[in-house]
Amino acid sequence: MIRPILIHPDPRLKKICDPVAEITDDLRRLADDMLATMYEAPGIGLAAPQVGVTRRLIVLDCNKEGDGAKRPLAMLNPQIVWQSEDVNTYEEGCLSLPNVFADVERPSEVKVRWTGIDGCEEEEQFSGLWATCVQHEIDHLDGKLFIDYLRPLKRQMITRKMEKFKRAQASGLVVKA
């Protein structure tokens, strides 16, 4: 099922999420719904708070462009256990900030440990777009958006733009963010 994606500003996007203590059928369904929502949007990552659920769950798939085989990942309680000193700058976007993009500098490689939806603990080292995406999604679990890395004035301008977008959306007008 496709779920509605929260648009910034929304206080639920700024909350620190609760750890997942038990893997239930509802949680598996949430992960499936999040993947379907992410692909439909389209995006390469989605965090549970973006669909209004304050649990430590993210989904991502950075292989979906071109002819690459899909590689959907659902991560419960993901944590970065190592990060490189080298950094990369990527132009990031977010499904909760439609049509907003900005350069963000992050570690170029990270090692992440998480529990899979099957209950098994996993660990993998990510680089490039995968590293950026997993860091971006984990930030969501801590109530942080990519615009929080920007200067205050730029962040305020984007927030005002999103408020205007939400008002127009609520009034039924079709607008571009």
Strand order, largest beta sheet: 1-2-3-6-7
Report the CATH superfamily. Peptide deformylase
The total count of helices amounts to 3
CATH architecture: Alpha-Beta Complex
Find the structural class using helix and strand composition: alpha+beta
Main sheet makeup: 5 strands, antiparallel
Q: Please report which band the strand proportion falls in: under 5%, 5-15%, 15-25%, 25-35%, 35-45% or over 45%.
A: 25-35%
| Rg, alpha carbons | 16 Å
- What's the CATH C level? Alpha Beta
Give structural notes.
The protein has helices at residues 25-40, 128-141, 152-170; strands spanning 45-47, 57-60, 73-83, 87-94, 97-107, 109-115, 121-127. It has 177 residues and is an alpha+beta fold. The chain has one domain (11-150): Peptide Deformylase (Alpha-Beta Complex). The strands form 2 sheets. Strands 1-2-3-6-7 form a 5-stranded antiparallel sheet. Strands 4-5 form a two-stranded antiparallel sheet. Strand 6 (109-115) and strand 7 (121-127) form a beta hairpin. The longest helix has 19 residues, at 152-170. The two termini are 25 Å apart. The mean pLDDT is 94.
